[in-house]
Amino acid sequence: MLTDKKIVVTGGTGSLGKVLVRRLLSGELGKPKQITVFSRDEAKQHEMRLAYQHRKIATDEVIYHNFEQLLQFRIGDVRDFHSINTVLRNADVVFNAAALKQVPSCEYFPFEAVQTNIIGAENIVRAICENHLPVEIVVGISTDKACKPVNVMGMTKAVQERIFIRANLDSPDTQYICVRYGNVLASRGSVIPLFHEQIRRGGPVTITTTEMTRFLLSLEQAVDTIFAALQEGTRGETYIPRVPSARVVDVAKVLIGDRRIKTVVSGVRPGEKLHEILVSEEEASRTIERGNYYVILPVLPELRPSSQLESPLGKEYSSADDLMTETEVAEMLRKHELLIPNKLVYEEDMLA
User: Which residue, 124, 247, 291, 298, is the most exposed by fewest CB within 10 angstroms?
Assistant: First the structure.
């Protein structure tokens, strides 16, 4: 599907971006002609470039033998129209992983979130539309916080989804689709790295509230969702992975194990929800099952199929439903090698 395609990954040096680039380079969807990592952090780009240049993996020779031709890095910012306009000039496929995603940061600096999460998306759409760029597919990467949003991060991501979905009406030659998922295990800034650090320091481990629940999935599952949307999605659809959820306090208990470390209830942070929702009640009537995913059909009637939906979801999809037991949480963390605090599968291992 991606053979001989030119791909741009905005925010490509982030936790998700790194795994997405590695999976693209593996050739599982075909051998791309070029992959451009587009981000504003030159230090992270330099580290990522060196990591690929110095690793030698026999099965991935294409990365190293054709490095300069296949994998490129470009400094820029989705906030800047000129910058995004230039990098998209010859792109066939765009993955928009650029985001301000920390909930408290977005609460304290809301317009910064607007500029990246909303204006950045609009710049992508504008560049493609105004210049008739030959982009075939744009995948907007969203979050469960965009569903019934109560915080700035979720509000800006909800608007981003609508910008991309609406863009299908103006660019008939470009297909815009979205993916939406919950907390990613071991991603930068997520709760598990925080708990590991607190455990290493001897505690206490801070729990916002004992009632809080979250959807949990790995970075690989996040990329699986992106690839499923890319392969099977049609314009205006939003892909949702069907993944387990857990109480955050159970995650902390499993990570602490039999260590003599205290937990402290610190209170809900600005903008946080007790439970996350991936599909709202309002969206449920136009949500269908497709394999391992829920697919939300577009809100705009011009983009929806005219026939009546068979077996829509009919109810919201919340992290408070079908919670994992502590044993199941432990099994999940063990599977992803996240139980041992001094063995981190974080940024330094994303390229492995």
Answer: 291
